Amino acid sequence: MGMTGKRHSEETKARMSATRKGRKPTVEALHNHKKAVNTREYKEKMRALKTGLKHSEADLVKMRGRRHTEDEKRRMIAVHKGRKRSPETCARISAKAKGRQPTDDARAKISAAMKGRIMTSEHRARIGLANSRRKLSKESRAKISASLKANREVVTRLQTQGPFWDSKPAILVRKFIEENQIDLRKEFWLPELLGNGIYHKFDVYIPHVRLLVEVDGCYWHACPAHCPDGRRPKSDLEINELFNAGGYEGYSLVRLWEHDINSGVAFPILLKTIREMESKFAA
After folding, report:
1. Is 69 domain-assigned?
2. Residues 245 and 253 sit within 8 Å (Cβ to Cβ)
3. Which of 253, 273, 271 is nearest to 210 (CA)?
4. Is 174 within a domain?
5. pTM beyond cutoff 0.70
6. Which of 136, 128, 215 minimizes the C-alpha distance to 172?
7. In a domain, 177, yes or no
8. Which of 117, 147, 237, 245 has its CA 20 to 30 A from that of 228?
């Protein structure tokens, strides 16, 4: 008669535990045990035995592991703070997380945890250093472009919210206009100028003659005098073509180069344009 169904008493269990305590199984014994429990017959037998079995709360706590208290978590954070991982550890973490997408619940928890957190200047400097001179691949550029096209409202919000920093030539132009007692608005936005929900910001707008003024830096806008081999931004060419065809919804445009502003050549031309348009509107 076999031992099927026999239950050991608590005293017997205690004696067996004390006997085996400190005893290490041999490599051969571990190999045989692993080989035995990995057979299909053993797995099917264990599955049949555990089907419908419900674990108690105590068993679930053991299976899930002990939960750390808040005090323990704070002590663990303090211990690990400032500790740097080795390149090998970073590579293993990166390889394990690659391709894994967080769930919506995980994203919500991360967002809630990061909300209101302000990065230190040192943290920002480290991020800037890590991203400096990093070249995006064609695939990355394509993904960014597709994301921006699919989220036009985000692009608009980023474009129309500041802060914006004035360039020195733009400040000089606004100062000249104000000295001539001419009303102006700075950073004037035109929606849907080039379609696709994209706004465009003009440096100065003179409302009573509906004149838009663009201040073009010689380097960034490829001035022919200083950057003959440069390529003019595509948006500049498209806007020029739009206004040269007869204006845009009653607006007129004048462009001023940075070197003309710095030398003072641009100011008489700008003032003459404004006065001519005032005469035109008054007629």
Report:
1. no
2. no
3. 253
4. yes
5. no
6. 215
7. yes
8. 245
